[in-house]
Amino acid sequence: MTSSNIRVNLPQNSYDIAIAPGSLSQLGNSLSELNIGKKVLLVSNSTIFKHYGEQTINSLQDAGFEACYHLIPAGERHKTPASIRKLYDTALKNRLERSSTLIALGGGVIGDMTGFAAATWLRGINFVQVPTSLLAMVDAAIGGKTGVNHPRGKNLIGAFHQPKRVLIDPQVLTTLPAREFRAGMAEVIKYGVIWDTELFERLEAAKRLDSLRYVDPELLQTILARSVQAKADVVSKDEKEAGLRAILNYGHTIGHGVESLTGYRLVNHGEAVGIGMVVAGELAAAMEMWQPDEAQRQNALIEKTGLPTQIPSMLTARAIADSLKNDKKVKAGKVRFILPTHIGSVTITDDVNPDILHEVLQKNIQKTP
Hints:
The protein is α/β, with parallel strands linked by helices. It is about 45% helix and about 15% strand. It has helices spanning about 25-30, 45-60, 80-95, 110-120, 135-140, 180-195, 195-205, 215-235, 250-260, 270-285, 290-305, 315-325, 355-365, and strands spanning about 5-10, 15-20, 40-45, 65-70, 100-105, 125-130, 145-150, 155-160, 165-170, 335-340, 345-350. β7 and β8 (about 155-160) form a beta hairpin. It is found in: Cytoplasm.
């Protein structure tokens, strides 16, 4: 597997995303190039830290950094202001300064929380992303969106704060549980639908996508590089989600509702996005914006990845529709949906008939035996 470097070009705070096998052991040397302060606080969870914490701390210390660490319990339900307050306590205890750096070593939850802490501690300090899950590598670690959840909605508390660098070491995926790999594939499929027809077709051509062991190194390189490039392209054009960047929320509108209504315990983020893409695709088909055969191609790809495609049976169409009113994408009281028009292209609309939405939601709720 080859190494590659992708640039996120922004009016201010541009940065590089390095995809390089074995690069975790070189983290300290990589950060030495950034001209940042010597104090670094590594943020992770106990599972990730058990695998990669010692290696990461040693790399930082060997490069001359004063490294300490803070662990947050694993899981979306710990993505709260209370967890951030404990992180602040560690930052204060270790006397982090404005030149200091927070390093996120983990998946999307760790990255979002670490970034939010970096955005708000001392009004903003350096931040580096070292994603360890596929979902974080292709999506959450890129673009500067940071935040925590409110009890009534996902990521309602947050800030834009771009990392100084994103370091992706594909070798860490070997310790990623298969369910988490599948969750990351939901975001990869998303890029195929909204932006990259060739990526979509490459995924269709693969025999199996439900586990890393069925993905050969060349296909993994394609998945990482094309997904990262898609995210970098969109963010470079619209850093703060004034328009185009909203397309990255494809599948997330319904997905966030499913996540929050099930208490972030039953389905993970990628699984919720997979369900959300099925609903969005069928909604677009019902509104005659998308061809039914393309909707079926998308759904077949989601199924091939081993992701759920139906809304959990304990939820109702009304509850999901009501939850959308708390979504960040609501504008002037209207929910904005990202709906596909062709594979590789989507549109943003707030003109969705509530009756059609209810019908599509009802149709996609899992039937109890």
